């Protein structure tokens, strides 16, 4: 791939041979083998050089990605015995940032000063899109779809509750049957392109989507709307913790059935992990579990 990329970039075998410090005959031999392996011409031979074919153009894109990955791998392996270092970008759903965002940043600053962390917050569906677009390396998201391109690990499971003013959801602490919730003015928090992240059961989710009075993709907007008494929402206690603690909002458990959602840590399956990425991933999982054990995050640690 390195020889091929040099031929593509230099335009002639002689210039590429000089760049790679190999004989022209050796470079020509490698190119012939590569074309035989792919079963197609990669260049059109011209009197004054080589012009890439459509296949050559496509292969060059792959070659650049392969060479970049190899360079990262070589640097990563060479630094195996050194302090953990490198760039790691993390995307988190709103609840995850609220629970462990500051702790993660503090641990990176204190324990891994050579790691450069980039942390972004978005709704769970949008966070997953950022991961798929290579904008982040790791993502903490709820209910990601089954996709062979993703490597996922369940971290915790949360029970969902009904949140709203007492005037709308009642002053009682008694659980609310799911079917009764469908008769209330529901506000649905759309997690990016969908509401899938709201709960594990997609059939029940469809019923909620069909009855929702308002749909929003802003945590602040939905919080203000709940406080203003425009409706109620299905979420977690952590989701509107400050409003619940202040007494502005009330919550009630949901039954028949109980609703839950699962938080996963995700990464792209085809991207090799670096020591820095592994370190941040393990730290994120440890911080989530610690938040659950300490009672700061009302959830169950996933098996």
Automatic annotation (TrEMBL):
Q: Which UniProt keywords apply?
A: Activator, DNA-binding, Transcription, Transcription regulation
> Which Gene3D superfamilies does the record cross-reference, listed alphabetically?
Periplasmic binding protein-like II, Winged helix-like DNA-binding domain superfamily/Winged helix DNA-binding domain
Q: Where in the numbering of this chain does the HTH lysR-type domain appear?
A: 1-53
Task: Indicate yes or no for the key word Lipid biosynthesis.
Answer: no
Q: Name one Pfam family in it.
A: HTH_1
UniProt cross-references to SUPFAM superfamilies, sorted A to Z: Periplasmic binding protein-like II, Winged helix' DNA-binding domain
Q: Sorted alphabetically, which PROSITE patterns does this protein's record hold?
A: HTH_LYSR
- DNA-binding: is it a keyword of this entry? yes
Regarding protein family, the annotation reads: Belongs to the LysR transcriptional regulatory family.
Protein known as: LysR substrate-binding domain-containing protein
